[in-house]
Every structure is written in C-alpha cells, then in structure tokens.
Amino acid sequence: MRPSGRDLSDLRTISIETGVTKHAEGSCLIKMGDTHVLCTATIEDRAPSFLKGSGLGWVTAEYGMLPRATNTRNRREAASGKQGGRTVEIQRLIGRALRAGVDRSALGERQIVVDCDVLQADGGTRCASITGGWVALRLACNKLMKSGACLSDPLPDHVAAISCGIYAGQPVADLDYAEDSEAGTDGNFIMTGRGKIIEVQMSAEGATFSREQMNKLMDLAEAGVAQLVEAQKAAIA
C-alpha cells in the first residue's frame, strides 16, 4: 500500500490554473497533490548574443523554492549570494526539456524565460515545473502568434514530465515526498505529447534495479505523461 493510498499507477490530483499573474505573457499555477509551483513565461525581444544573426530563438528557465516550501525553513539563496548546486541542475533540466519541444526557427530571434517558483513541495517539483512551465510557454507563444510576431507555431508538441520509482519493491508513478525519500530507485521521465522521449534520469538510491523494472517504469511514465498532457490541453482550451 502506498502512503497516500493510491494505486501503483495513480497520479496525484492535478490542477492547472492559468492567468494567475497580471504582467507575465504566460502564467499558471500547477498543483500535483501537495506540490504547488507558480510558472511564468516572459518574452524578451532579443535572443542571447551567441545567437545573433542566426534567426533562432531561445528558451531558458530559472527555478527557485520559497523558504517555507518544505517542512523546515530553507535560507533564501539570494541571502547566501549564490545558487545551490541542486537549483542550478534543476533549472538547466527545465530549460533543456522545454527547448526540446520548441521550433526555434519559428520563434525567431527572441528569448522566452520561464520562471518556476515552488510555493509548496511534496516531491516531484522539477517534473511539475516542466509540465506547468510548458503551459506558461504555450500561453506566451499564443500571444506572439496573435500579434503576428510569429507566423508559425513555435510549439509543435506538448512537453510534460513525471517521476516514477521503485517503492517497497513495487514500481509506482508520481512519487510524493514520503515515497521519494524511501524509494530504492528514483527516475524522472520527460516526454512529448506524441510519446517521444526527451530525457530520462534514473538512479539506484538504495537498491539496484533490473531491466524489467526499468521497462515497467517507462510504461508507467508513458501513461502518466499522457494524463498530464490531457490536463495541459484542458488548461489552455
């Protein structure tokens, strides 16, 4: 039995509310159970200098966690003067994942920055950030197309992510913190709406895993991402 009482393949309750901030070109609040992330997308009229003259756009991401997003207070990274290694790794992952779903030629020489701020954490914050970040990015791209700044769609497909792992010897989908902290194997799976794989991060946390178990986790991830894509579609409809 999972701590939450969910079946092995059950995801936490998913909620995506759009238009939650006044100024951002795209925004949403994504809730996956007790993990809540505010995602905003900001359009900048020029691409980074290394893309000057290329005709290509860029998507990047920043990630942060509020001090009381967890059960004990974490010091603001700004107070220490630098980001922690975990923060840097996660925001690079979010940026890579979202760029993989972008037609950078259609985007043109501009940059979209996706900010993901964790309001409350209960496992899977990077996956929720990617899933919600895509929604914010989608809304920003809709504005570009509506204004005529982009003549074709820069986002040809959805991007979503889910965590899966081996908990108490069983493959389970969408780990919450109680499971994540005890999982023998932990993995993050990033896929497109058409089921193509963008990135898989898997590691043995407390016990090695077999090829058969990895295949089962992939199956869970594929089904879970399909559900997340449906939630994205409903949010932007």
TrEMBL record:
PANTHER family assigned to the protein according to its UniProt record, in alphabetical order: EXOSOME COMPLEX COMPONENT (PTHR11953), EXOSOME COMPLEX COMPONENT RRP41 (PTHR11953:SF0)
BP terms from Gene Ontology: rRNA 3'-end processing; rRNA catabolic process; tRNA processing
Positions annotated to bind phosphate: 86, 124-126
Function, as annotated: Phosphorolytic 3'-5' exoribonuclease that plays an important role in tRNA 3'-end maturation. Removes nucleotide residues following the 3'-CCA terminus of tRNAs; can also add nucleotides to the ends of RNA molecules by using nucleoside diphosphates as substrates, but this may not be physiologically important. Probably plays a role in initiation of 16S rRNA degradation (leading to ribosome degradation) during starvation.
Protein name (Swiss-Prot/TrEMBL): Ribonuclease PH
Assembly notes: Homohexameric ring arranged as a trimer of dimers.
Documented EC number(s): 2.7.7.56
Protein family membership: Belongs to the RNase PH family.
Top enzyme category: transferase
Tagged with keyword ATP-binding: no
GO molecular-function term, one example from the UniProt record: tRNA binding
InterPro entries in the record: ExoRNase_PH_dom1 (IPR001247), ExoRNase_PH_dom2 (IPR015847), ExoRNase_PH_dom2_sf (IPR036345), PNPase/RNase_PH_dom_sf (IPR027408), Ribosomal_Su5_D2-typ_SF (IPR020568), RNase_PH (IPR050080), RNase_PH_bac-type (IPR002381), RNase_PH_CS (IPR018336)
HAMAP family tied to this protein: RNase_PH (MF_00564)
Position of the signal peptide: none
Pfam families reported in the protein's UniProt record: RNase_PH, RNase_PH_C
Record field: catalytic activity: tRNA(n+1) + phosphate = tRNA(n) + a ribonucleoside 5'-diphosphate
This protein's UniProt keywords: Nucleotidyltransferase, RNA-binding, rRNA processing, Transferase, tRNA processing, tRNA-binding
Domain Exoribonuclease phosphorolytic residues, every copy: 11-140, 159-223
Keyword set includes NAD: no
SUPFAM superfamilies in alphabetical order: Ribonuclease PH domain 2-like (SSF55666), Ribosomal protein S5 domain 2-like (SSF54211)
